[in-house]
Structure formats: structure tokens, C-alpha cells
Amino acid sequence: MNKRIRRIIAVVLAVSAFSTIEPTKYMNITGITKAYASSTVIDNFQVNKAATDNELNLYEDEDYEDTTNFKASTDTYYVKTSSSSINFTFDTNSNYVTKVFKDDSKTGTPFDSGEEINLDKGTNTLYVRTYKESKFDKNNVKTNVIEEYKIVVERKTNSTNDVQLSKISLDYGDISFSKSQTSYDVDVNSSVDQIEITAKPSKKSYTVKIAGDEVTEDDDYQETVDLRKGANEIEINVTDDDGNENTYTLNIYRGGKSNTTTDNSDIDTTQDKIYLKDLKLNNGDVELDYNKQVTKYNVNVDSSVNKLTIKAEPQDDNDTVKVNGGKVDSDYEKTVNLDDNSTKEIQVKVKNSDGEQRIYTLNVTRGTVSQNSTTNNTSTDAANNTSTNTTSNTTTNDTNTNNNSTNQTTSNNTVVSKWVKDTVSDKWKYYDDKGDQVKGKWFYYINDNHWYYLDDQGNMKTGWLSKDYKWYYLDENGIMQIGWVNLSGTWYYLNADGSMRTGWLQEGTKKYYLNSNGAMQTGTATINGKSYTFDTAGAMSN
């Protein structure tokens, strides 16, 4: 036997002997380690729809056939949803921290328990990592990892949504139903004040709601809905066990399609799916083409109308309704005074016991609002208390002490790069460097390094603001707040981007819980089926 063959045999025998003597668990010849620990420090692990906190199923593989519970011995899980955002909720043993990441980079952004995570369409791969509390390194989040789990989330779009109805039928009107078609226009006679709708799901396990009311096989998936004259939009929602939802819309026109339109007729999909059943002004004497999904209306009334009685009936009798912060009476009505020759913003908020809410905004103009009315041009910067009263067609000389510049304009009262207070509406507005009003967007004022929000009318917003699925708080000066804020004795936490925080919040060694309405929890509370105690400062007790 030549020497080369003898050496190969010797090496094989040596490795075999080592394998026999050395227990397998101590061997790491290939350098590969398990991606999970033998015992986890994570408890009560859930993936939830962010909008409702409804738990989503965990699956063993991408076939989505067998659901499973979270356990340390499994390092990869699969989730499917149609929701645009999710959150993770979990408890971590003391002296450890757990973070969630949207990508596998070493500088990935960490998300805490309960924090909303936006999903891309298609496949999203997220990572759940646990560290010793003092070992988490935000500059390299892939080091010092005690445990790591991969969560593959498939976000389905409407075009691929397989949560469908098998049938929609009406006792009046014609409808040519197709599973993949989700919107229908139906004309009925003006004498038809009710319509019976049947909506059968393609699977019996699906939940079906017609106009917000659940229907079942026991009632043949039928619901009778009242119709008012003109346009009636009726939603049919079908949901599977994973919380994936599809919505069919019936646009039913009693007496034929209405010729009237609303200035702001865009459907609002950014707010929670909670609605008013009806919205009437002065018992219907003031025309309003109400659509429950449209949340902004421009209304013009004669100068003789000095009051507006708003009737805002919720879709669910258990929901609360407020008009400009005040509760409606037992008939769901509240009266608001109107100033002559001015525009008044009226907010109607409907809210349920789960903290879901929707705000309808009425911009009501009484009489005629002059474009050349006298204004008071004042900078809001705390360092500048100088104001100059200006009148149309006169010279304006505005000085900003922060940038030591003087903007002088003549004719038609053109104002540039300035805050202006409308003395009629008592609202602040901002004119950019071209003299145009900033409207309907966030605005960063470089002179004081703060963010403000100007609404569609150009008015500076204060108080709570709902925007793009998130809540923000702007103080009495319109400045967007961040960090902890105390409002009427209740603490809230605003993230670095100003959005209101909900769910768990870890600050150093202290852990807090912000309820679905953003309020900091104190005392004893049951969260996801487990009891917790928080001190008067909101910190969770060990």
C-alpha cells in the first residue's frame, strides 16, 4: 500500500475515533450553530394586525396549512395577511431585551413590542432577536444575539386576494356578480326604502358582514338595509381566520344616480373602519351628500343661518359621538353657532370601545368670506413678538428678527415666507417664498426648527391630528410634539417622527404600556391574557 493511501486511511480513522469519543453536542467542525436556543427567554409571542391588534396565525411552512404555536425549537415561522401593517407583542425575561427588524442588515432599524411595522406588498422577511440587556449594539444589531427567529410575512394585495364571496343577490335591482369584481352600481326605484342583500362566502369558515352587521348561515347570509333617497354605499366585508379581508361595495342609487356632488368626495381609507350611519344638517334642510367613507365636506349656508344642528348617528349604538369635543344628546344631535362671513371647521368624531375612531370634518361657510379682509401678520416665533397690521392694496413691511431679513411687498397684500393670522377665522396660515399658502401637508419651519401641519384650508392645526393611519399631537402653538407629553393628567408618548406610540415601550430598565388610545397604563391591567402591574409613573413592576 503506498504512503498516500495510508495517510488518507489514517485521517479517516482519526476523525471516526474523535466522533466516537467526543459527544456530538460539543462538535462544531463545520462552524455551523443553531439559530435558536434550547430554552427561550421570550413569552406570550404574537403577531398582530396593527390596526385592530387581532392576532394572526403562525404557520409551520409556506404552504400555510398547519398552524403552530411559538416555541424555541422552531426558528422560522410563516404568516399571511392582507393588512398593510403589523406589530409583534411579547414578554422578555428581565435582564434581556428583544427587538424586531425588517431586514437582515447590521444597521437595521429596531422595533419594540407593540410598535407598528409597515409591510411591503409581497414577501416580507423579519427577524426577532434577543440580547442581554447591556449587550444590544445599535451599530451592529447582528452581534451578541442570544436567540434569533425568522418570521416570513406574505402580504396579499387586493388583486391576489382569495378571500371571496361566492354570491351576492338583491331582492330589488339587477347585479351581475363575479367573485373578482368588488364594486357594483345598482339603480332602484325611489319607492324602494329597504333592500334585502344576500352575500354567501366561498368558504363556510369565513366571516361576512353586511353594512357592519354579521350574517351567518343560520340567517341565509341575508341582511335588510335601509335606503335613503339618492346614493347609498353599502360595504360587504368577508374575512378569513387569519384576519385577511376583502371588501365588496354596492353603490345603490334610490331613484337613479344623484346629480349632486361633494367638493371633497375622495374616499378616506386612512382611518379606522368605524362609521356614522347618517349625518344630517338642520334636519336635512342644509344639503349634504353624505357618504360614510368620505370624511371631508365643504358646506355653504346663507348668512341668515346662524346655527347648525348636526345629527350624527353612529352605525353601532354602543359607539360614542362627539361634535367639536362635546358629546351629542340622546338624539345624536348637537348645535354649533356660526359666525357671519366666515368659515368654521366642525369635527364629528365617532369612537368605539376598542379605541377605533373616525373623524368627519365639515368646513361650513356662512355668507361670503372676503379674500381682501384685514389680516394681522405676526411671526409665531417666540423670539419675535412684533406684529404689523396690514390692509389690502397697501404696503406691508414685515421684519423677522430671527433671520434679520425684511420682506417688503406692495399691492394686493402679497406676503412671502411669513405666518399670517386670519382675523376672521382666528387661524394661523403660512405663505411660502412664492406667496402661496401652504395647504394640506406637513411644514418644517426652519426659523424655529419645528414641524407644523397646515390643513386643506391652509389653517395651522393644533391638538390631535389623524394622518396616514397615525395620530400626532400639536401643541397650542402648532408645534408637533415628541417624547412624553401630559394632556389633562394623562401621559402619552410620541415617537421621533411625532406619531403616537401604542403597545410596549422600553426605556432603559423600565417598561411601559401604552393602550390603544395612546394613554399610559397604570395600576393593574390584563394584556393579551396576562396580568401586569404598573406603578403610578407607568413603569411595570417586576
TrEMBL record:
UniProt keyword Repeat present: yes
Coiled-coil features, chain-numbered ranges: none
Domain Cadherin-like beta-sandwich-like, first and last residues per copy: 167-254, 277-366
Biased composition (Low complexity): 370-411
A single MF term (Gene Ontology): peptidase activity
Domain of life per record: Bacteria
SUPFAM superfamilies associated with the record: Cell wall binding repeat
Signal peptide bounds: none
Gene Ontology annotations of biological process type: proteolysis
Pfam family, one: Choline_bind_1
Cell wall-binding repeats by residue range: 439-460, 461-480, 481-500, 501-520
Keyword tags: Hydrolase, Protease, Repeat
Region (Disordered): 369-411
UniProt protein name: Collagenolytic protease
Protein species of origin: Clostridium saccharobutylicum DSM 13864
Taxonomy of the source species: Bacteria, Bacillati, Bacillota, Clostridia, Eubacteriales
